[in-house]
Give the backbone structure.
Amino acid sequence: MINVVKIGGNVIDDPQALDAFLMDFVALEGPKILVHGGGKEASRLSKEMGLTPTMIEGRRVTDAHTLGIVTMVYAGLINKRIVAKLQALGCDAVGLTGADGNLIPATRRPAKPVDYGFVGDINPALVNTEFIASLLDRGRVPVCCAICHDTQGTLLNCNADSVAGAVAIGASPIAPVRLTYCFEKPGVMTDVDDERSVIPLVTAASFRQLKEDGIVASGMIPKLQNALLSAEAGVEEVRICRASDLRDDGGTIIRME
Amino acid sequence: MINVVKIGGNVIDDPQALDAFLMDFVALEGPKILVHGGGKEASRLSKEMGLTPTMIEGRRVTDAHTLGIVTMVYAGLINKRIVAKLQALGCDAVGLTGADGNLIPATRRPAKPVDYGFVGDINPALVNTEFIASLLDRGRVPVCCAICHDTQGTLLNCNADSVAGAVAIGASPIAPVRLTYCFEKPGVMTDVDDERSVIPLVTAASFRQLKEDGIVASGMIPKLQNALLSAEAGVEEVRICRASDLRDDGGTIIRME
């Protein structure tokens, strides 16, 4: 079993929570892969450099200057901090973008109807399984950020949840994959203010219903779409849970049916 | 023969020169490794963020904030730009710091007599030869920046010439290594204003003499020291030349005797 774990910006922005999470991650047995976001630090740095981040439907508009900033923050600062911390914990981490080893080719999103700039979409079928296998075979732990490339020399800013899903799909031919989306909530909830309202199982059919009924929050919809896409493409287990529950049960399991 | 090539900030700062250099690099046959600096972009970004770079004897003083900036610029912006460009040229580049795969452990420099902050020195004997071999074996091309780690979770800013020398030494058990330091001059010159004054060969003995006579410029001394250290440690060929001469003869050969 290969564990693919996605960790979001809320945990990354909190040094104590990050350290605790990384210790849990290291304790996972067997081959594993970490995928991280880091949007808040990019927004903070953009502001320091006089830019105001523009978001449309939760996605950052990435002009050339912003692409430079997110590349610096995601692929540089956050990725290498995490790699150094994991190495200190005895975990042989290797930090990667989708450009490194052509791990994740992406396609620049069409400029219509909304021009997101240097933003890429991923075809999970193109993830470089051989590269992942060659690292895992030697006990290495890929640590992936959401900067990919168009294979023509241009870096592209991608969605970290999509990267996690794509990496999980790309690793599936090697061994069964367990994909865990970690965030600050205990799972997908029917009431965002009530932590007891976690939905234990979401299927393709119940997801449609939850969307129709307006029960899942808008930020959760792309995460669930990525989760379902991964389940459909052969990822054995998909779960959304609180970062501190990584090694425990709980949270929301996502299955096709 | 493994080619290890170091490229400095002057070429990196000039997009046309960089593209021409990368095409020459890609044309080198057989396994190869690129090591890059990038000091000017870090200085520019530091200024944009209100910091004034402090240099002592050509080495940047690296406080915690500066470490973040150099990590962003070297390991993020410059490294990933180069990786994306190489991938577009059909070269299977993988961008790395010394923390990734524990490629290059470093030791933080003692705070006396000068406190350089988060600056590291490298013991070439500790370079991770197995990791380099595992990448080269599959036709991958490591692209290394000069950010290393202390193996205890802290990143360290190292000298890119030292990184190139250490990587060349670390690759030598795999196959004979040719180490080429590329920069904007045609080689080591007795008169910095006369490009015809290139010294074709520097040995350990002639280096001592050149230093005593005050003939080599101060910026060249650490480069020559690194070159001689590499030659002494078993690197088969060491050369200092102009970036555009990478595929030609010329420049200065460095040998122990």
Q: What stands out?
A: Chain B has one domain: 2-254.
